[in-house]
Amino acid sequence: IGNFTGGGINAITKSGTNTFNGSVYYVFRNQALAGTSPQATLVPGSTTEYQRTKLPDFTNQTMGIRIGGALVKNKLFYFLLAELQRDERPQPFDFANYNGTSNRQSAIDSLSTFLQTKYGYNPGGYLDNAEKVEANRYVGKVDWNVNSNNKLSVSYRYNNSFRNNVSASNSTTINFYNNGYVIPNITQSGALEFRSNFKNGSNNRFLFTITDVKDDRGPLNQPFPRVTLNDGSGRIVFGTDNSSTQNLLKTTNFVLQDSYKMNVGKHGLTFGTDNELTKAYNVFIQNSF
């Protein structure tokens, strides 16, 4: 077994059967379904009583539908799945905890107004820089029982997703939302598998897969130089993430495997081949704005 490091997971896509069936599912989680903060804090006005607080409001939602059945009874089967994921995790900040010289929100708001008026650049908010994850996933599979000893399976998986990766403001740094970056991802994977069983108890498995992945990391909002303003014991940061101005990774993997297994007395022997071809294209240019 090759082409992995540290651990291997063998996942098999569900197949259709002679009986048509399907399901619709929805998974939801928010702050009301989670525990309180792991670290206790003093109750205001008390020196001995501690309390734990609820997590900030967040939502995790996954919803999907799947169906499976037979195109030709006992011969040709199909399976289809569509799934959507919508997650949002807030990162609220209490401005009263900021230790910089500009200890008035009006001063920070004036900076934002100046950037929009002077340069037409909206730096975004800074009090609740929520992270977002959205994904659309689709799966299709067809199984063909060629005869009693041979089976052909063809499957395809598609994932289109993005994540807004942003930094929360804290006691020493005011981070505007648009100094984060977005990571969009498109992953496509197709597989063709042919299995054969022989009269002597031996069997053969042929597998060919193609996986294409595109990660096109980029700026949130319009391009703007990265700026850090020293603000006494604090700092104020706005503008495009300096490592995300030109950041692209595309990889395509081709894998061909074939294994023939046979029993000789008390021994099992496997003969075969395992081949992988990878094509990669990477762009990484910092500070281009």
Helical residues, percent:
under 10%
Gyration radius over CA: 27 Å
Question: How confident overall, as mean pLDDT?
Answer: 93
Largest sheet: spatial strand order: 1-4-5-6-7-9-10-13-14
Q: What fraction of residues sit in β-strands?
A: over 45%
How would a crystallographer describe the biggest sheet?
Answer: 9 strands, antiparallel
| Poorly predicted ranges | none
Termini gap: 45 Å
Sheet/helix structural class: mainly beta
Order of helices and strands: EEEEEHEEEEEEEEE
Number of helices: 1
Overall geometry comes to elongated
The count of strands amounts to 14
Question: Could you name the key traits of this structure?
Answer:
three-stranded mixed sheet; nine-stranded antiparallel sheet; single chain; elongated; mainly beta; 289 residues; 14 strands
How would you describe this structure to a colleague?
The chain is mainly beta and 289 residues long. Helices cover 5% and strands 55% of the residues. It contains one helix and 14 strands. The chain has one helix at residues 105-119, and strands at 21-30, 41-42, 50-51, 59-72, 76-89, 131-147, 150-165, 173-175, 181-197, 203-219, 227-231, 234-238, 246-264, 267-285. The chain has a nine-stranded antiparallel beta sheet with strand order 1-4-5-6-7-9-10-13-14, with no helix packed on it. The protein has a three-stranded mixed beta sheet with strand order 8-12-11, with no helix packed on it. Strands 2-3 form a two-stranded antiparallel ribbon. The longest helix is centred in the middle third of the chain and has 15 residues, at 105-119. It is elongated and about 80 Å long. The two termini are 45 Å apart. The model has no long low-confidence stretch (mean pLDDT 93).
